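Entry type: protein chain
Record version: 2
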Amino acid sequence: MDGFAMPLPILGLHHVTSKASDPRGTDRFWRQGLGLRRIKQTVNFDNPSVYHLYYGDAVAAPGSVMTYFPFPGLARGSRGTGEVSAVAFAVPVGSLDFWEARLGAAGAGDVMSDTWFGEAGLSFAAPDSDAFCLVESAGLAHSENTDIAGLRGVTLRLADIGSTAEILTEFGYRSAGIEGNASRYQLPNAKTGDVVDLIADPAAPKAVEGAGSVHHVAFGVGDLADQDRVRSAMLVMGQKVTGVRDRDYFQSIYFRTPGGVLFEVATEGPGFAVDEDMAHLGETLKLPAQHAHLRARLEAELVPLD
């Protein structure tokens, strides 16, 4: 598809949101195990009895953020097509030995060295068996700072990659190589979250969503005007796109791709410091305005976090 005359203003990945089965275990793994900062504790807009927990870098930058809906006791999902099958974070070159030891101490499962499209990394499983990778990024020199630098990309397992590849191309991603049944798409000049890998697996069953499943992957744009350009382009492509939804820390639109994965397009602002000081992000429960009247009940019912 030729698309619009000017490239769509996609900045890269904004965040990834998954489901989990244990609020405290999830919080402990991402803060203590992976060393990310809890930048927001709030609730699911559609189900306020469930947390929505956000983790990111020290300044809560879009492109560094992993979020969770932890439904206590939720059954595990089953892997298959129509889902994000793995999430990758960027780490400094030379830091994999450090991370292998840290992941083992944190209780990560199936920690293994691997290589993706010529880049060294570690694959591992989080507490609900959700799959992650830490990938050495050539733009990050090894130093005393071994911190996760942000999202590197996501892998989508699909019965047919064609329609999703068309959407990514319209987003500005470009074909960047093929390894076996995996096709890499990369966004030029993205600050972070620049890679989407598509795995064609037509013989696999459809995924069943549950704990350990990615609920959606969000791509970033600068503002509402940029978001409207993306929405218009997706409507032209025949996607069923929602209207703008206020998520307090960003504005969002959503559409489910023909491959089955839910895509979100989120603005960079107003940001996570809109309702609490940057130095104290994620320390107290923040509620969307429509759920503010539930505070006493929710504070009594939600599992306390450290």
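Comment: The two ends are 50 Å apart (CA to CA).
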